[in-house]
């Protein structure tokens, strides 16, 4: 595998608005890559497709040789996505959010704790605090 990401003719629309219109490019393995563009250019849509949060309307995309549609479970085990907006449910506690999102991905917190520990350790002091009451929200 020479490319970490391969995108061919990728398209996504929201109603009449085309967020991505036949986008194609490669990201070579081992390279540092980012997208820069104005609001509405499709950056977030593209990231959400590559992290399997959205399904494209057309075209193909692979991450680490895995198809974003057919291999979404495998991709979710190797790729993380941090949205720009606060994404926890404010009425759920930190623990409830953690277990809820783990269940969406078909994993358990216990079996995958080593993956989240570096981030979760900062919130571990507040397991019963509602997410909406965390600072920075």
Largest sheet entry: 4 strands, antiparallel
Helix content: 25-40%
Order of helices and strands: EEHEEHHH
**What structural class should be given to the helix and strand makeup?**
alpha+beta
Shape: globular
Mean pLDDT: 86
The counted number of beta strands is 4
Low-confidence segments: none
Rg is: 17 Å
Could you give the distance between the termini? Answer: 41 Å
Proportion of β residues?
15-25%
Total number of helical segments? 4
- Sequence of strands across the biggest β-sheet: 2-1-3-4
General description of the model:
28% of the residues lie in helices and 23% in strands. The protein has helices at 43-50, 72-78, 94-104, 109-120; strands at residues 3-14, 17-28, 58-63, 66-67. The protein has a 4-stranded antiparallel sheet with strand order 2-1-3-4, covered by helices on one side. A hairpin with a 2-residue loop joins strand 1 (3-14) and strand 2 (17-28). The termini are far apart. The model has no long low-confidence stretch (mean pLDDT 86).
Key descriptive features of the protein:
4 strands; 137 residues; single chain; alpha+beta; four-stranded antiparallel β-sheet
What is the secondary structure topology, with strand pairs?
Elements: E1 3-14, E2 17-28, H1 43-50, E3 58-63, E4 66-67, H2 72-78, H3 94-104, H4 109-120
Antiparallel strand pairs: 1-2, 1-3, 3-4
Structure described in brief:
This protein has 137 residues and is an alpha+beta fold. Strands 2-1-3-4 form a four-stranded antiparallel beta sheet, with helices on one face.
């Amino acid at each position: 595998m020479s490319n970490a990401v391969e995108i061919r003719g990728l398209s996504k629309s929201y109603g009449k608005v085309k967020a991505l219109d036949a986008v194609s490019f490669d990201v070579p393995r081992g390279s540092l890559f980012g997208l820069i563009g104005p609001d509405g250019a499709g950056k977030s849509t593209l990231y959400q497709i590559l992290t399997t949060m959205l399904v494209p309307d057309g075209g193909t995309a692979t991450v680490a040789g895995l198809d974003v549609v057919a291999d979404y479970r495998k991709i979710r085990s190797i790729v993380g996505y941090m949205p720009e907006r606060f994404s926890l449910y404010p009425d759920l506690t930190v623990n409830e959010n953690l277990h809820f999102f783990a269940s969406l991905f078909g994993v358990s917190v216990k079996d995958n704790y080593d993956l989240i520990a570096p981030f979760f350790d900062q919130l571990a002091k507040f397991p019963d605090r509602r997410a909406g009451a965390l600072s920075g929200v």
